[in-house]
Design goal:
Elements: E1 3-6, H1 8-30, E2 45-46, H2 52-55, E3 83-99, E4 102-121, E5 125-146, E6 152-173, E7 178-199, E8 206-229, E9 235-243, E10 246-261, E11 267-285, E12 288-296, E13 301-311, E14 316-317, E15 320-321, E16 327-338, E17 351-365, E18 368-382, E19 390-400, E20 409-424, E21 426-429
């Protein structure tokens, strides 16, 4: 009587991959995840928690599902496929920032994600784990202001750090049409911020505030998928995802002092105004909601749309709200076309992707929302002799912010490279 078993040598390879993931997570803790003055506020710039193939489709994620892939945004998508899934991604970006007539160009690269999906019960229960950056802080801004007609001062704002997200995702198929899922994530990271005021008049002492905050705690995300079969073997998928509001632990160190820089470039402290060590508190993260729809025919097309929102007015740090944070939303549209997935000619099997997106970020400055919009293109290159495995490429062009009201406009050109690799987890035995 035929039965299924898990191949032992694949378990050994899985343990090896787990070891590699631990090394990569250490690298992720040390990387610069973002370069943006808008990362000054709250937890920093919120980063996309998804994979390269999703980025190529405008970032649609709530209802998107592909053979041999899973979806961190909606854990219900991974509900027991028979394939072990390995996801790995990197990105590089060129950023042009402009304020009034001043322009700056910078580049950045980061590890985007590392994840493994395992089917524990075929077509019933799937589990995934890995990590993605949750948010990033990286900025250095200087402003000059007059004291009077004879004196002026400069204020230097700088920050670095970020928060990583380590997750375990479970997906369950409760009926042929309905799946549910749960992400359990542990977030951890440290953000360092400083503000230094320097006076042109040497008779004034300079002043600075240096703050370091470490966050640690759990996040929980729920997912739901409803699959409807239509005519001509096409299918409509409706998805919903909810990130529960949560309160995480936080520890803060802060020092505020007056100082003067001597002739040797050494800062000599005059007095300390405030000194806080190992202050324990809470950081409250708000509820998030997302809704999506995907349609695909039997052979060629996949089309998807998303709407996601989050109310950051309820965010707080150590009991204090952040007035620069407001409600955010994102609208995404995406499509994929495949000529013939079973063709012998290689380029007829390539997945061609594109998308559009618009978002109102969670930043509100000078009574103006910081909006973002862009487009993406990409493709999935099938890997020979590897079922549903592919090398994914996504190119995003986007703009964030405006030069109005003396704000900063940012233009990004981003390349995201991802590997989706699959391996059969269940093997059929001929005899019991």
């Amino acid at each position: 009587m035929p039965s299924f078993r898990i191949c032992p040598n694949r378990i050994g390879r899985l343990l090896l991959v787990c070891g590699i993931s631990a090394i990569l997570s250490g690298i992720a803790c040390a990387q610069t995840t973002t370069i943006s003055p808008y990362s000054r506020f709250g937890p920093g710039e919120l980063l996309f928690n998804g994979f390269a193939w999703q980025r190529a489709m405008g970032g649609t994620a709530v209802a998107t599902e592909m053979p041999g892939a899973f979806n961190l945004v909606n854990p219900a998508t991974y509900d027991g496929d028979s394939l072990k899934v390995f996801e790995f991604g990197l990105s590089a970006e060129r950023i042009v920032q402009q304020q009034s007539e001043v322009e700056a160009i910078s580049t950045n690269a980061r590890l985007e994600y590392f994840a493994i999906g395992l089917p524990f019960k075929r077509n019933r229960w799937g589990l995934a784990f890995g990590f993605v950056p949750y948010s990033g802080t990286g900025y250095s801004v200087t402003s000059n202001s007059p004291v009077d007609s004879l004196n002026s001062f400069s204020t230097e704002f700088s920050g670095a750090g970020g928060i990583n997200r380590y997750f375990i995702s479970n997906g369950f198929r409760v009926s042929p049409a309905i799946s549910v899922g749960l992400n359990t994530s542990y977030v951890y990271g440290t953000t360092d911020r400083s503000r230094i005021v320097r006076y042109a008049d040497e008779n004034f002492f300079d002043t600075r505030i240096i703050e370091s905050t470490t966050i640690s705690g759990f996040l929980f995300d729920l997912g739901l998928m409803w699959r409807l079969k239509l005519k001509n073997d096409s299918r409509l998928t409706i998805g919903a995802a909810c990130g529960l509001a949560t309160s995480t632990n936080a520890e803060r160190n802060l020092i505020w002092d007056n100082f003067r820089t001597n002739a040797f470039g050494v800062d000599v402290i005059k007095d300390t105004i405030v000194s806080i060590e190992d202050q324990q508190g809470k950081i409250s993260l708000p509820l998030s909601m997302g809704f999506g729809i995907q349609w695909n025919d039997a052979e060629h097309w996949v089309m998807s749309a998303d709407y996601r929102m989050q109310d950051w007015t309820s965010y707080s740090e150590f009991g204090e709200s952040v007035p620069q944070l407001d409600r955010s939303y994102r609208i995404s549209l995406g499509a994929q076309y495949t000529n013939d997935a079973k063709a012998s000619a290689y380029f007829r099997k390539v997945h061609y992707r594109g998308g559009l997106f618009h978002s109102r970020t969670n930043i509100l400055l000078r009574d103006r929302h910081v909006d973002e919009y862009g487009l993406s293109i990409g493709f999935g290159l099938p890997l020979r002799k590897a079922f549903h495995s592919q090398f994914n490429v996504a190119i995003e062009a986007l703009q964030r912010g405006t030069v109005d009201s003396n704000l900063v406009r940012e233009r990004y050109l981003r390349l995201v490279l991802g590997l989706t690799f699959n391996e059969g987890w269940f093997q059929k035995r001929r005899y019991d």
